[in-house]
Specification:
Blueprint (H helix, E strand, L loop, with lengths): L1 H33 L15 E5 L1 H4 L3 H10 L1 H10 L11 H17 L7 E7 L6 H10 L6 E4 L6 H6 L4 E4 L2 H9 L4 E5 L12 E5 L9 H9 L1 H10 L11 H15 L9 E7 L3 H15 L5 E4 L6 H7 L3 E4 L2 H9 L4 E3 L4 H8 L1
GO molecular function: 5'-nucleotidase activity; magnesium ion binding; nucleotide binding
InterPro entries: 5-nucleotidase (IPR010394)
Organism: Catharus ustulatus (Russet-backed thrush)
Length: 357
């Protein structure tokens, strides 16, 4: 027994030693930077931050550059980027979401100047380092605060996402997003809206689908495999049983933590974060379980919209979210057509049905 206990304690001791070494590294870095005079806000420690990793093709419009890469190869792509490194890139689908995150950070720093619990944006790209100058020039042009870059030179970013304790990963590459989802990292593939929309510059607005996004796909499986009536019956029978969590539950939780920091300063009515549940569920037939699940988790949602199968696009036009997460491509495409920036979460049984159609 004692031998077994000794073996079990070794990994935990190694993890504890690693954590202590990491803390010493951060303390040394902080001591160095504390001696530097700068007006720039320093990035928070990953342990304290809500880290949002964004790919270069999500942050900027790189459609033409991607075409060159696919048609002419890597060398011509790098050459093009270097020849155009002083040409500022246009915003991509995640750009206005990132800007909104940074405005929330500015408000947090006003209220909590010594607190590190805020968003930290990391540029996570498989671009080669030679392309970095153009990305830096564009980031500085728009006044974005993105100090941490990972340019992996074509290698998978998943290990780096884990190292940065990433809370959300946004990319234009669906394969990398699926890889991240499988690794347990909240992720979504970004799609550009087909119309220009004016977004709020005072409030971050984030809209979520429910099943297979905030919640697991357990109820959606019933619907897909046994039909709508059986789904309604199942939800009513299990009304008081919380749903399991889905891939974006953690990010909704992160937003809720920041909202409470504003509420603590009597800023509830002026909170710069607003969350929306936009679900195809019916309220009377299957809505109670959703609301009770959120309550059991201690989470608040600012607005809950039960559409009973109606299209989501028109409602999203009214909300004008900086990002809308959904697991089904036909909802993503419907949102896109009417001007909503949408993010596809490749999780759950809907992916199986999409592949088979």
């Amino acid at each position: 027994m004692s031998g077994s206990g000794s073996e079990e304690s070794q990994p935990s001791q190694a993890a504890e030693d690693g954590q202590q070494e990491a803390e010493r590294d951060w303390a040394a870095a902080k001591a160095f930077y504390d001696n530097q005079v700068t007006q720039r806000v320093r990035p928070p420690k990953p342990q304290n931050a809500i880290t949002v990793a964004v790919s270069s093709r999500a942050l900027f419009n790189l459609v033409e550059e991607q075409r060159i890469y696919e048609e002419q190869g890597l060398e011509k792509y790098v050459e093009y980027q270097q020849n155009n490194e002083n040409v500022i890139l246009k915003p991509g689908p995640a750009f206005y979401f990132v800007k909104a995150l940074e405005r929330v950070n500015a408000r947090l720093l006003e209220l909590y100047p010594d607190d590190e619990e805020r968003f930290d944006i990391v540029l996570m790209t498989n671009n080669h380092a030679q392309v970095g100058v153009r990305l830096i020039n564009s980031i500085n042009h728009y006044g974005l605060t993105i100090e941490r870059f990972c340019m992996t030179g074509g290698e998978s970013p998943i290990g780096y996402l884990t190292a940065y304790l990433t809370n959300l990963y946004l990319s234009a590459d669906c394969d990398k997003v699926q890889e991240a989802i499988k690794a347990g990292i909240a992720s979504a593939t970004m799609f550009t809206a087909n119309k220009d929309v004016v977004y709020s510059d005072t409030q971050l607005r984030v809209a979520f689908d429910g099943d297979a996004v905030i919640f697991s796909d357990e109820s959606e499986q019933i619907f897909k495999e046994q039909g709508l009536d059986r789904f309604f019956e199942h939800e009513q029978l299990n009304e008081n049983k919380p749903l399991a969590q889905g891939p974006l539950k953690g990010f909704l939780e992160d937003l809720g933590k920041l909202q409470k920091k504003f509420y603590a300063k009597n800023e509830r009515l002026n909170c710069p974060i607003r969350t929306y549940l936009v679900t195809a569920r019916s309220a009377a037939s299957s809505g109670a379980r959703v609301l009770k699940t959120l309550r059991s988790w201690g989470l608040e949602i600012d607005e809950a919209l039960f559409l009973a199968g109606a299209p989501k696009g028109p409602v999203l036009v009214k909300i004008r979210p900086h990002i809308f997460f959904d697991d089904q491509m036909f909802h993503i495409e419907g949102a896109q057509k009417l001007g909503t920036i949408a993010a596809h979460v490749p999780y759950g049984i809907a992916q199986k049905h999409q592949k088979s159609t």
